[in-house]
Amino acid sequence: MTETVDGPHEYEVVASEEVYTGRIISLRKDTVAMPGGGTSVREVVHHPGAVGIVALDDEDRVVMVRQYRHAIGEHLWELPAGLRDVDDEPPVDSARRELAEETQLAAEKWSLLVTQHPSPGFCDELVLLYLAEGLSDVTRPDGFVVEHEELDMTVERVPLAEAVQWVFDGKVRNALAVIGLLAAAQVRATSPRLRPLDAT
User: Fold this and answer.
1) 156-195, pLDDT tens digit by residue?
2) Distance of CA 20 to CAs 25, 42, 72, Å?
3) CA atoms within 13 A on the CB side of 149
4) 150 in active site
5) If both were cysteines, with which of 38, 49, 88, 189 could 84 make a disulfide (CB 3.0 to 4.6 Å apart)?
6) Residue 64: CB partners within 8 Å, gap ≥ 6?
7) 75 falls in which pLDDT band (50, 70, 90)?
8) What percent of the chain shows pLDDT beyond 70?
9) Angle at 162 between CA 129 and CA 107, to 5 degrees
10) Can you give the pLDDT at residue 149?
11) Whole-angstrom Cα distance, residue 13 to residue 15?
């Protein structure tokens, strides 16, 4: 951002055009006022946001899922995660729901681990990652139906140190999982101060 004696430049949107609206994402073209005069067009993907969960059991094993991702045509090792697609649902409640849906687990203790924008150059998606501890078995939420890629999904518990090594081995390549695993390992190593559970 260009700094001036008057403060940072105001990137005002002078025009906006909806290009595409899909089931999950939409695409718009914004014309934005640039520093030094003139405008430039920026394409923006709107995404409802997501949550991810680093679920650690009493033996410091992390719950990992292996799921097919069509965009790259591969199965990936990931953390339990999902869209924030329920109106007015607090993010931590979305995380609780996703953990139960994907792994049939609940957690006694929840902490906000990190928040991240996966691709801020073109997408407004915000992902909130939670640390879940004190795991117990639960049934899937009423009305939830396992379908599509989740029919093929496997769930495993992996020692946290081994899962971190998977990051460096290239076995874990999902950005949410990479960030979550490394952050959880740092929490275990140094006990950093975490933000309140309702922070974003």
Assistant:
1) 999 999 999 999 999 999 999 999 999 999 999 999 999 9
2) 8, 14, 22
3) 13
4) yes
5) 49
6) 77, 78, 79, 155, 156, 157, 158, 163, 177
7) very high
8) 97
9) 40
10) 74
11) 6
d(CA 31, CA 12) in angstroms, rounded, equals 8
Q: Between β-strands 26-33 and 39-46, what pairing exists: parallel, antiparallel or unpaired?
A: antiparallel
CA–CA gap between residue 137 and residue 38 (Å, rounded) = 58
Residues whose CB is less than 8 angstroms from the CB of residue 184 and which lie 6 or more positions away in sequence, other chains included: 54, 56, 62, 113, 131, 160
Which two three-digit tokens encode residue 11?
């990137």
Q: Average pLDDT for residues 9-36, to the nearest whole number? A: 96
Please report the DSSP string for 113-142 in residue order: EEEE-S-TTTB---EEEEEEEEEEE-PPPT
Of the listed 12, 125, 150, 156, which one is catalytic? 150
CB contact at 8 A, 111 and 131: yes
Give this prediction's pTM: 0.91
Question: CB under 8 Å to 50, separation ≥6 — which residues?
Answer: 81, 82, 83, 84, 125, 126, 127, 128, 176
Q: List pLDDT tens digits, range 118-134.
A: 999 999 999 999 999 99
Q: How far apart are CA 163 and CA 191, in angstroms?
A: 19
27 bridge partner residues? 20, 45
Question: Is residue 120 classed exposed, middle or buried when 0-12, 13-18 and 19+ CB atoms within 10 A define those classes?
Answer: exposed
Task: Report pLDDT for 142.
Answer: 79
- Residue identified by tokens 């996703």 is 98
Q: Which residues of 73-92 are buried (b: 16+ CB within 10 A; e: fewer)?
A: eeeebbbbbbebeeeeeebb
